[in-house]
Design a protein that fits this description.
Elements: H1 8-11, E1 22-29, H2 48-56, E2 58-64, H3 70-79, H4 83-86, H5 102-108, E3 112-117, E4 131-133, H6 135-142, H7 146-151, H8 165-169, H9 194-209, E5 216-225, H10 233-238, H11 273-306, E6 313-319, H12 338-341, E7 342-348, E8 357-359, E9 363-364, H13 368-375, E10 404-408, E11 416-420, E12 424-428, E13 434-438, H14 456-470, H15 472-480
Parallel strand pairs: 1-5, 1-6, 2-8, 2-9, 3-4, 3-5
Antiparallel strand pairs: 2-7, 6-7, 10-11, 11-12, 12-13
């Protein structure tokens, strides 16, 4: 259905012919900056299409996730609100229907809105999108091969496309009879992998709607490089454990100097031959997944070129959170260390966003909605937690706010917070535990200054600033280890 046949009521008060740019978000899941050459990563993964975006756009070097967990990060990006505002604090906490997303805001301006890929919604809402292609459609495509994909999932609620399974089934997994392994050898042909499917569907959307009279907002959300660590065969053969060259351990790092919450997933025997071998075993297929998702990104960029849409499309390439990739001897996410909380972000819009530029100003994914709305010439709603940083791309736009907020609660009673400013990273846990890193002098986050007498004034200042951002009641709950306060109606 083209917009010419779209009901007038749907198009919203702001609808008009071809205004502003098209907006395309490409989000990867658990993509670490450490795996991307464009961000100086130590792992030499071949990512020609991400490299192209970096050459043709602006690389944001200091962007953070609002939460180092999938669902809270994604819905903060989509709403411009932080997890303590929405109550979406863990992978099993849905976003309440009353919160508006980018799809609602752009739809009101007459954009056709589409979500293709892993929304990770935990419930059956569409959250304002006109077009929704998610894992249910992928399973329809796979048919009997769905069980083959499930073999690599590791668990039904592992985050690999069906996080809501246990929600719908009361904890009983429909995959319980499938032998599962998080590093299952590749069993699907490349074109049957989920991200190949989503790339094709994104291209199909562009072909159907891309040249319509109305602009589009398209959110493409890939599963990889998140597990299952089973890249397509050609990438699995390229990235083997023998290929992995591990970076050296951080000099002077003493895990006893940091709170235990900062080390949620330690690798057994880290920085010993046994720990190194274990790290190579999962980093290799992870890098294969990175190469695959880069290839899928290239398909979408190719479709934009083929359809003559590239000049009129603002692209944001990003990840919901990172992966420790053995940094500090840790695995996965759930940490405020940069490898987990600092995410890649590249913005491209030919002729409007500087090509080959690098921006070091501090931003976070909660800023994306107001930034894109400002870039598109659309009104920015009041009351958002994030704010536009379009001025970092266009001199006439709003300047970045200069700080980033990240939260980690996992649905439990002990929320934790990170406040990042231009110089400092302050992490506050429960019962008075905290970390303070001077990111200018100590970008590797080795020397925790929180207990140093000479830095108590900085700790107090940042703690008070954090209280102001999250609200007094939320701050009290955080300090006392109580559940977050109820949300206002």
């Amino acid at each position: 259905m083209t917009l010419a046949g779209w009901p007038e009521g749907k198009r919203g008060d702001g609808a008009m012919k071809r205004r502003g740019p098209n907006v395309l978000w490409i989000m990867c899941d658990q993509l670490s900056r450490l795996a991307l050459p464009a961000f100086g990563g130590p792992y030499a993964v071949e990512t020609p299409h991400v490299d192209r975006l970096a050459r043709e756009g602006t690389v944001f070097e200091t962007c953070y996730t609002p939460s180092p967990v999938c669902v809270p990060a994604r819905f903060s990006a989509l709403t411009g609100l932080y997890p303590h505002r929405t109550g979406c604090v863990g992978n099993n906490t849905p976003l309440p229907m009353r919160f508006r997303t980018a799809a609602h805001h752009f739809g009101r301006q007459g954009f056709v809105t589409a979500m293709v890929g892993k929304m990770h919604p935990v419930d059956a809402q569409t959250h304002g999108f006109d077009v929704l292609v998610d894992f249910g459609h992928y399973y329809d495509y796979l048919g009997p091969k769905t069980a083959v994909f499930a073999q690599g999932m590791g668990a039904a609620d592992s985050g690999c496309g069906v996080p809501w399974v246990s929600t719908y089934t009361g904890g009983r997994s429909p995959w319980r009879d499938v032998a599962a392994s998080p590093t299952q050898p590749d069993l699907l042909e490349e074109e049957d992998h989920p991200d190949s499917f989503f790339a094709r569907e994104a291209c199909r959307f562009l072909e159907q709607y891309g040249r319509d009279e109305a602009p589009f907002f398209l959110f493409v959300s890939f599963l990889r490089p998140h597990k299952p660590f089973a890249p397509p065969r050609r990438f699995a053969e390229r990235y083997t454990p023998e290929w992995v060259c591990l970076p050296p351990p951080p000099k002077g790092y003493d895990p006893e100097r940091v709170p235990p919450q900062a080390r949620p997933r330690p690798v057994p025997g880290a920085f010993t031959p046994e720990g190194d071998a274990a790290a190579r075993a999962w980093i290799a297929p992870y890098c294969g997944n990175v190469a695959h998702v880069d290839d899928c990104t290239g398909r979408i960029l190719g479709a934009l070129d083929r359809l003559n849409l590239a000049e009129d499309t603002l692209i944001m390439f990003m990840s919901d959170h990172g992966d420790m990739l053995y940094d500090h001897g840790l695995a996965a996410k759930f940490s405020f260390f940069d490898a987990s909380s600092r995410v890649p972000l590249i913005i491209r819009w030919p002729g409007r966003v500087r090509a080959g530029a690098r921006c070091g100003e501090v931003v976070d994914l909660g800023d994306l909605v107001p930034t894109c709305l400002e870039a598109a010439g659309a009104p920015v709603p009041e009351g958002l937690g994030g704010s536009s940083f379009w001025g970092a791309c266009d001199p006439g736009g709003r300047r970045p706010k200069g700080w980033a907020l990240s939260e980690l609660a996992l649905g439990g009673p002990r929320p934790m917070y990170m406040l990042r400013t231009e110089r400092w990273k302050f992490n506050r846990y429960v019962q008075g535990q905290s970390e303070l890193y001077d990111m200018r002098a100590d970008p590797g986050e080795v020397n925790n200054l929180a207990d140093e007498v000479t830095h108590q004034a900085v700790v107090q200042e940042l703690s008070a600033r954090l209280d102001g951002l999250i609200g007094e009641e939320a701050a009290r709950c955080q300090r006392q280890g109580r559940p977050l306060p109820p949300l206002p109606e």
